[in-house]
Amino acid sequence: MSKLVWDKIGERFYETGVKKGVLYPQGEGGTYLKGVAWNGLISVTESPSGAEPTPIYADNIKYLNLMSAEEFGATIEAYTYPDEFAQCDGSAEVATGVMIGQQSRKPFGLSYVTTLGNDVKGDDYGYKLHIIYGALAAPSEKDYSTINDSPEAITFSWEVTTTPVSVTGYKPTASITIDSTKVDAAKLAALEEILYGKDPSTPESTDGVDPRLPLPDEIITLMSSAAG
Hints:
- The chain is mainly beta.
- The chain has 2 helices and 16 strands.
């Protein structure tokens, strides 16, 4: 038996920041096309909804609670976005440099990284890798204003809804989170090579790898495989 102790040295954890955003436009058949870096990412606000209880009464008592389905949504805010995101934002290029709006919006996937810290290692403690599937961006407001003596860069934001993808043995999901402090480093490196691609000039191989977004079953297989 042992007594609980709060705020022990090394156990004062926190999570901060957002970086290494990657956009994966969705192709035919639910797979995702080549990933592209999303520069200027300011924030990703995850907003789950649903999972609300509906009470059922019988025999003059509360008999049970029925839970509604849970949905995953998010808000993306950025200073800019990749050219490939235009089709996800309802735009189409009709000629070089000429875009029209109000077009069909293409689903996409997204990955990004948040920093994990503690009181000993600070921001070097670790990170979480977040992956979102089946995202669909809603129209967003764009606020253009005059340049003045307090200049500010325009920010863009999108409300995002998702359609879950299947996971063998589990309910469908639209999000995966991987904690670098808890998974095998070699497996995580292999997953990141899939997500971010690989330069053919690296010493380990002469073969380049295009960045792509694996579906949950592939990630689970990779992360649960035997070490090495």
